[in-house]
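Support reply, case 0932

Customer input (verbatim):
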Amino acid sequence: MQDLTPRQIVAELDRHIVGQKDAKRAVAIAVRNRWRRQRLPEELQAEITPKNILMIGPTGVGKTEIARRLAKLTGAPFIKIEATKFTEVGYYGRDVESMIRELVENAISLVREQERKKVEEQARARVEERLVDLLAPAPPLGFDNEQSQDAAARHERTREKMRAMLAAGELENRKVEVSIEQKSVPMMFTGGGLEQMDFDIQGMFEKIMPKHTKRREVTVAEARKILFEQECEALINQEKVHAAAIDLASNLGIIFLDEVDKITAAEGKGADVSRQGVQRDLLPIVEGTTVQTKYGYVSTDHILFVAAGAFHRSKPSDLMPELQGRFPIRVELTDLTREDFIRILREPKNALTRQYAALMKTEGVEVEFTDDAIEAMADIAFRVNQTTQNIGARRLATIMERLLEELSFEAADMGSGKVTVNAAYVNQRLGDVAEDEDLSRFIL
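Our regenerated output:
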């Protein structure tokens, strides 16, 4: 996990997400507490459990984006999962334990990448040797000892010449034959039951079924990539990777549980019989239990859970009391204001205005957004959100697409040029639609 202070985490999140300081601070503190716990004596580490977070706020205000950016920042095993994907045990669908299996898979990818970096140099050296063997195969052994010695000497000189040419990049287009192992898939399983099996059925079949190798003729450049992957796999100790991944997932794993408000069910309404059951199944996972995966047992005691939901038609108190108690930190995200929309279009590193300008630049068309254009778009976004359904910052994507629809269509035929998008441009294309509430309800 990267050694980032809460202030640094908030500063990094500020580069991509506008506002929502409370949510950023809560997440930053929770992540830093993971780092602090790692530096305590082992007996005390076991006693300190993470303080799970529940983020409450309307759609499009940054809940999911905070999670996405956090995943890149921490470098810890992280998965984002929708609560609506799960069904109660006994119903057709996915059980809640599958999220822990996904977290372990994510941890394995992280650990394997770290191990791969350690063996890259050794793997490259072995690849060069294998390429030389392919380009200059050993001569057949002769009966005459003197002839065999001469052939061996000539072969060694040829190998050195090939090695020098490889290093100079002169043989990249030369064709060689490489063996590629193909994994046989004996049968196809469908449905949600396969992932719930307690044993690795796919791994079992791979051991039973014979391995198929296929020889392919490829260029040296392509062969280098294929052989590099093979050598890395051979050098990495898979058992060590699995053990380290389970430890990493158990102690530093973060699960972002989105759309948690959708698993609340009002009493007396049988819209979805399994919603309450999903909450009951989630409870032991969040409280702390041991989940069996094909790599080993994973304890969920120290996994951090960040739940989020809009809670439009329900409220956090509609969740089971036991589940509510497992999310002690509540953070409310606020609706976006007109000023927030202006900042969203202007400040973030990946602002929509920059994205569309970059897309148009590929066609040779330079697009410039003036300050009054940004303010006009923010006005329309805020007004439409107030008069129709409030979908937060997602409204800006709809507005930008509608605004630049004609330019996107014509840009390929324009050749090159510069287009300045100002308030008049915005009002000409969006003014009528934004003013008409019925039209904006369907178009924007």
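We compared this against your earlier run and they match. Two observations from our side: The radius of gyration is 29 Å. DSSP finds 18 helices and eleven strands in the chain. Please reopen the case if you see a mismatch on your end.
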